[in-house]
Amino acid sequence: MEKGNTNKILTPFLEGLKNAGASVDLVYARRLKINPCIGDFQCWFEKIGDCIHKDDMQSLYTKMREADIIVLATPVYIPLPGEMQNFINRLCPIVEPILEFREGRTRARLPKTAKISKFVLVSSSGWWEIDNFNTVIRIVEEIALNTSTEFAGALLRPHAGQLGKFPEKAEEIFAAARAAGIELISNGIMSEKTLKIISQPLIKEEELRNAQTQAHLNAKEK
Prior knowledge:
The structure is a single chain. By secondary structure, this protein is α/β, with parallel strands linked by helices. The protein has a single domain, classed as Rossmann fold, CATH 3.40.50.360. It is built from eight helices and five strands, in the order αααβαβββαβααα. The chain has helices at about 5-20, 40-45, 55-65, 80-90, 135-145, 165-185, 190-200, 205-220; strands at about 70-75, 95-100, 105-110, 120-125, 150-155. It has a three-stranded parallel β-sheet with strand order 1-4-5, with helices on both faces. Helix 1 (about 5-20) crosses helix 6 (about 165-185) and helix 6 (about 165-185) runs antiparallel to helix 7. About 25% of the residues are buried.
């Protein structure tokens, strides 16, 4: 959590949000009791907006309805850590159960009482390729589409485990993450130039892959 590669990018990004005047509330899903969604849709058909589970998501629903921007920060697993997947599945109660057909797809939207206007992704990956984020990006894009909000972009850090080996580049990346937060609040968007700095390669693809393969072989020999 606090020591992970995702947090290395998230921390300066949140600093940038605060520097631009935003109030930030950071919550770690792993520290919360969030039961899996059981798909009974009580929150849509019986007690609209009221989840059947009375766990730590109840306090998050209140926070999210009052938030202007939701930042989802996660490493890439296959595709998401279990705690993050549970959290996403439990977002249903904040969505208004009125379906619309837009651009060839059935969509929903947030109720007028919810203030959320944007979703942002912050993510890290151990692999070299930026394409390794595609599935996670698509998930957050779909959340935005299904709530009729804006996907405001993604701060992506591939081969994040290499940051410690390139301290000067790491500082440049952290500064860009901070700048992205300021841009988002001040301008409503994050510039492509800033996001590309965060995602810049630190090592050649073949070099990283060979190192990862060798580490795997070394582990098998122990």
